[in-house]
Specification:
single chain, alpha/beta, three-stranded antiparallel beta sheet, 10 helices
Length: about 250
C-alpha cells in the first residue's frame, strides 16, 4: 500500500540524534577506557591473513548472512541528521554512522565502525561502503581541518593511518574487490581525483578496494543511490536539503 507523501515524511524524517564524536556523546562516554581493539596494531598484525580470512569465513556462514554495508555520513552534509531515516528499509545490512564533522576524530570513526560490525555479526567485514561527505574535484573534506587530497594523504600521517586502519575492516572473502562509494561531492572532477583514489587503493593494500564516485544524476549514480537508499525518500530529501524549513514536519 502506497503511503501518501505527508505520511511518508512524518514517518521517516525524524532527526537521528546520536552523532559519533559529538561533544554530547563524548560527555556521556566520559573517560571510559576504549574496549575496542582498533588500536592493538601489534596484536592485529600477528594474526596472519589466512587466519583472519578463515575467521571471517566462519562468521559469514549461513544462508541468511548479508555482508554489512557501512554508511559514513558527515554532519557537514546539509540536513545530514535525516540521512539515516531515508535508507532502504528492506535491507537490514545497511548500517548508518552519522559523525560530527567538527569534533569527531579518525579514532572515533574507526571505533564506531568496529562496534557496529561486531553488533551486526561478530567477525563480519565490509563488502560495500558509502562515504557521504563534502569535498570537490580532487579532495574529500572528511573532518574539520582534514582535507584528503593526493598530496596530503601522502604527507599527513594520521590521514594515511586512517585509510590503512579502515582497510582492516574490509572483507578478505569477497570474491570481487570491496567497493567504497564516495557521495556528496564530485571527487573525479579533475585528474587529481583519480590520483587520490589510486593513492588510497595503494594505502589499503593488500586488501582489494575499488573507489567509485559517480555523478548522482548518471545511471551509475542512480544505481549507487538505490543500493543504499529508498530512492523516493532520497529524492524527497534532496528537494528539501537546502530549504530554510526548520523541520520536515513543517511541510505537513
Amino acid at each position: 500500500m502506497e503511503l501518501d507523501s505527508a505520511e511518508v515524511i512524518h514517518r521517516n524524517f525524524r532527526k537521528h540524534l546520536r552523532m559519533v564524536g559529538s561533544r554530547r556523546m563524548k560527555a556521556q562516554s566520559g573517560d571510559l577506557p576504549a574496549s575496542c581493539g582498533t588500536l592493538d596494531e601489534g596484536e592485529r598484525e600477528e594474526l596472519d591473513w589466512e587466519e583472519e580470512r578463515e575467521m571471517e569465513r566462519l562468521a559469514c556462514e549461513g544462508d541468511d548472512f548479508i555482508p554489512p554495508k557501512i554508511m559514513l555520513i558527515s554532519s557537514k552534509v546539509p540536513k545530514a541528521e535525516y540521512v539515516p531515516t531515508i535508507i532502504r528499509r528492506d535491507d537490514p545490512s545497511i548500517i548508518p554512522i552519522l559523525y560530527d564533522h567538527e569534533h569527531a576524530t579518525f579514532d572515533d570513526i574507526l571505533e564506531e565502525i568496529e562496534k557496529k560490525l561486531t553488533a551486526y555479526r561478530r567477525g563480519s567485514k565490509i563488502w560495500r561502503m558509502l562515504i557521504f561527505c563534502q569535498g570537490g574535484p580532487g579532495h574529500l573534506y572528511l573532518l574539520k581541518n582534514k582535507v584528503a587530497t593526493f598530496a596530503k594523504v601522502e604527507k599527513e600521517e594520521d590521514m594515511s593511518q586512517f585509510w590503512r586502519r579502515l582497510s582492516r575492516f574490509m572483507s578478505k572473502v569477497n570474491p570481487e574487490p570491496n567497493l567504497i562509494h564516495i557521495m556528496g561531492c564530485y571527487v573525479l572532477g579533475n585528474p587529481n581525483g583519480e590520483k587520490l583514489f589510486q593513492k588510497l587503493k595503494n594505502l589499503m593494500r593488500p586488501y582489494s578496494i575499488e573507489f567509485e564516485s559517480p555523478l548522482e544524476l548518471s545511471a551509475q549514480g542512480k544505481e549507487m543511490i538505490e543500493m543504499y537508499f529508498d530512492f523516493r525518500l532520497f529524492r524527497l530529501w534532496k528537494t528539501r536539503q537546502h530549504s530554510k524549513l526548520l523541520d520536515y514536519e513543517d511541510l505537513l
